[in-house]
Amino acid sequence: MESLKCQVLEKEGFHQVEPGDIFNNRYIVIKKLGKGHFSTVWLAYDTNQFTYSALKVMRSTRRDVAEDEIEIHQAISRATGSEEWQKRQELHKTYIGHFEDRKYFADMLDWFELQCVHGVHLVMVFEVLGMNIFQYLKTKRFEGLPMDQVKEISKQLLLGLDFLHEVVGAIHTDLKPENILLEPDYATLNEFIWESVLELKAQQSYESIFYDLYGNKISKRSRIPGQPDNTQRLKVRIGDLGNGIWRKELYEHQIQSRQFRSPEVILGIPYDESADIWSLACCIFRIATGDFLFYPRETETFSKEDDHLGLMIETLGKFPYLWAKTGKRYKHYFNSKGKLNRRPTHPHSLVKLLQSEHGFDQQTAEEFSEFLLPMLSYKPEERASAETCLQHSFLSRDLPSYSEESSESEDSWDGFELRIELVKG
Which of 30, 65, 94, 181 is most buried (CB neighbours < 10 A)? Predict the structure, then answer.
């Protein structure tokens, strides 16, 4: 059975990693954290820096994806602290009232090549981050988060996208709750590391000495120091740039996960960075309600794409005819009168949807709708930018104030955050 598993992994281009493996004469593999379409991710101990990292081991058959991701991460590193970055920081201060001098993306610390008999795997070394927003919503039984947390997360994501679009010059193309990662407190991360290292030691006789984040030797006889701090504000990072592209061109190939896909992509109209803004609006709705804004289904009479377009029309109104018909796939979905070929529609407003389906009071529904709708404009050139969204009054209403000094906790991050399921991609 183990031999068959190995053969399958090799055929698909995955490297068979095992706890206890040592990579690059430096990283001791401790525990598997996750698996995506193009990679597996592992918690590892960095014996040079005495820290913990997440190793993203790419499939040998998809070197192109890995090289693109590395290139964008390197561009992010170069742009951070640049003159343009500083200008954007000053601009952000005028919108939100204080500096947010922190990172908004999972930080790639290093990369190297891993040689094996079946090919060469690129391995990216990331800081370790916390559970993703989908997992966090799951712990809340998908009931949605309080509106003050929704606003806080929205603001951080908009700051990150503004940096990515305007300073780095890249487009994410796959923004969704699974790719938005929480920063946990130091003690929670340390507890996870203790459990993972002790699990490794229990599985095999391992002589290496591991230290925790406080410099304590990890052993069964020792007590895990520190208690989780549940008082910190929620802080998030954007992960998985494996599908990222450069902003300098217009694109037409399909992008985005289905529920977060923008109309221009479905219709076959060239898209740009505004596709990320559409996805972000869908993410924010999901965070606030626990539900999808658009959840297309297939029936005997229409496809998921038909349903998706129908759901958009029901919530946002008819597509602009002259714009929509420029799409390469327009005639497949619409007739000469601009109506869907196969799916009937039953219009309702976003405000009514929030009230009837999710229990929002009228004022909150109206304010939330006013914030989301500019991000959901059909035509990309009319869709709100991240910078424009940051200026919306919705983000400043009833938000707790954070001074520049208190916006980062003492133990906030230094390449150590917990990541249960890093960058699927």
Answer: 181
Closest CA to 182 of 414, 406, 424, 417: 417
Q: How far apart are CA 153 and CA 100, in angstroms?
A: 13
Cα torsion at 137, 264, 256, 277 (round to 10°)? -50
Tell me the residue type at 171: I
Alpha helices in 46-146 (DSSP H): 63-79, 83-96, 133-139
Tokens 């068979």 found at: 16
CA proximity to 327, closest of 378, 274, 377: 378
Residue 115's contacts (CB-CB under 8 Å, 6 or more residues apart) are none
pLDDT, tens digit, 9 for 90 and up, residues 80-134: 989 998 888 888 888 777 666 678 999 999 999 998 877 899 999 999 999 999 9
Helix (H/G/I), strand (E/B), else coil: 54:
strand
Going by C-alpha positions, the residue among 9, 170, 154 that lies closest to residue 96 is 154
Looking at this protein, which amino acid is placed at residue 210? F
pLDDT tops 50 at residue 209: yes
Q: Which of 8-12, 78-82, 179-183, 279-283 has the lowest mean pLDDT?
A: 8-12
Which has the closest alpha carbon to 416: 233, 134, 240, 191?
A: 191
User: CA angle at residue 304 from 298 to 307, to 5 degrees?
Assistant: 95
User: What residues contact 360, with CB distance under 8 A and at least 6 apart?
Assistant: 354, 368
Q: Which residue has the tokens 């061109």?
A: 249
What whole-number distance in Å separates Cα of residue 195 and Cα of residue 54?
16
Nearest to 281 by CA among 385, 169, 351: 385
CA dist 309 to 176, 190, 269, 345, Å? 19, 46, 14, 10
Please identify every residue annotated as catalytic.
Answer: 174
Nearest to 97 by CA among 409, 408, 393, 411: 393
Residue for token pair 């007590």: 223
Helix (H), strand (E) at residue 50: none
Residue 404 has pLDDT above 50, yes or no: no
pTM above 0.90, yes or no: no
CA 376 to chain centre: 19
